[in-house]
Amino acid sequence: MTASAKVASALLLLGAASCLPHPGGARGQAIDLSHGGQITVTAAGGFDWDQKTQTVTAYDRAQAVRGNVTVTADRLTAFYRRKAPPPGSPAPPSQSTDAGSGANEVYRLNALGHVHIFTDTDQAWGDRGVYDIDQAVMVLTGKGLKLVTPQDVLTARDSMEYYSQTRMSVGRGDATVTTNDGRQIRADVLVGYSAQSSPQPAAQGSQPLTGSGKLEKVNAFGHVFVRTQTETVTGDRGVYVPDTGIARIVGNVHITRGQNQISGAAAIVNMHTGIATMTEHPGGRVSGLIVPNEANPPPTGTHQ
Questions:
Q1: How far apart are CA 62 and CA 50, in angstroms?
Q2: How far apart are CA 256 and CA 214, in angstroms?
Q3: What is the CATH number of domain 3-227?
Q4: How does DSSP assign 20-85, residue by residue?
Q5: How far is CA 209 from the centre of its chain?
C-alpha cells in the first residue's frame, strides 16, 4: 500500500468512528473523548495501518481531535473494531475489517512522547497516555504529570487518571492539589471529585466550549500534608472540601507552627483562616511542644 493510500485509509477510519452513547446525555465534560462526533487524526510523518492488530498509527507531531478535545503526541495509535449493529437490527453481511469501511469504530487511543491533551478549559501532560473511549477513562504516566483546570492544579509522580463519567481525578505518588488561591494538600494518593459542568454558550454554527466542573471534594490517603499560611498539618488520611475551606485530617496527626508542635488523633484545618485545631474523642489526649518565645503558639484546646 502506498503512503498516500495509508493516509487516506487512516483518515477515513477515524472519521467514521461513531458517537458512543454517554450516560446523562452530551453535557459538557472536561477532557472527554467518549462522545462528540468524528475523530480526526493528522500527522507530519504519515500513518501505518496494521490489519492484523486492527490499528492505525500516526507518527511525528500526531494530533487527534474529537469535538473540543485535542490530543497531541509524538506517536498516536488508534485501535478499531467492527461496529456493533443497533439492538433489534439484522446482522450485517460478513465484511473484511477494512479501515476504509464505515463499519468500524475506534475504542482506544494510545499516545507516546510529549503527550498533551486539552480542551478549551482543561489541560493534561505526560510522557505516555491511554484513553479508553468505551469507559471514558484517561491514564497518563511518565514525568511531569499535570492536570490543570481553571480552579486547581493536580500533579503526581507515578500516574494520573481521569474518569469522565464520574468526574473523578486520581493522582498517585507524591500527589498535590493546589487551588488557584494558593491552598495546597499533598498525599501518596489524591482523589478529586468535580461537579457536573454545563457547556458554555457558543457562537451560532460553532460547538459549545467544553466546560470544567468545579472541584467539590478531595480525599487524601497516606502521608497527608496540608499547608496553610501559618501552619503545616500531617496525618494518615484526610478529606478536603474547597467550598468550605475545611480539611479534616485523621491518624497520627501533627500540627506545626514555627517551633511549636502538637500531636493527636484528628484535626480540623480551616484553609481560609489558616487555623488548625486538634480534635479528640472524649478521653483522648493531645500532646505537644510549646516554645515560650514563639510569637503565635498553636491552639491546644480540644473539641469534645
A1: 17
A2: 30
A3: 2.60.450.10
A4: PP-TT-S---SS--SSSS-EEEE-SS-EEEETTTTEEEEEEEEEEEETTEEEEEEEEEEEEEEPPP
A5: 18
Q: In this structure, what C-alpha cell is assigned to residue 126?
A: 505526560
- Residue partners of 12: CB distance under 8 A and separation at least 6: 99, 100
Give tens-digit pLDDT for 194-233. Answer: 887 654 443 333 322 234 567 889 999 999 999 887 889 9
Angle at 237 between CA 218 and CA 304, to 5 degrees: 105
| In the chain, domain spans | 3-227
CB 26: neighbour CB atoms within 10 A? 16
Contact 286, 264 (CB under 8 A): yes
Question: What are residue 62's DSSP bridge partners?
Answer: 73
Q: State the pLDDT confidence band at 281, using cuts at 50, 70 and 90.
A: low
Residues 72/61, Cβ–Cβ less than 8 Å? yes
Which cell is 188 given?
Answer: 501518596
Give CA–CA dist 77/47, Å, rounded.
Answer: 9
Q: Got the DSSP string for 248-302?
A: EEEEEEEEEETTEEEEEEEEEEETTTTEEEEE--TT---EEE--TT-SSPPP---
- Interval 3-35: pLDDT, tens: 443 443 344 345 433 333 333 333 334 577 776
Cβ atoms of 53 and 153 closer than 8 Å: no
pLDDT for 83 beyond 90:
no
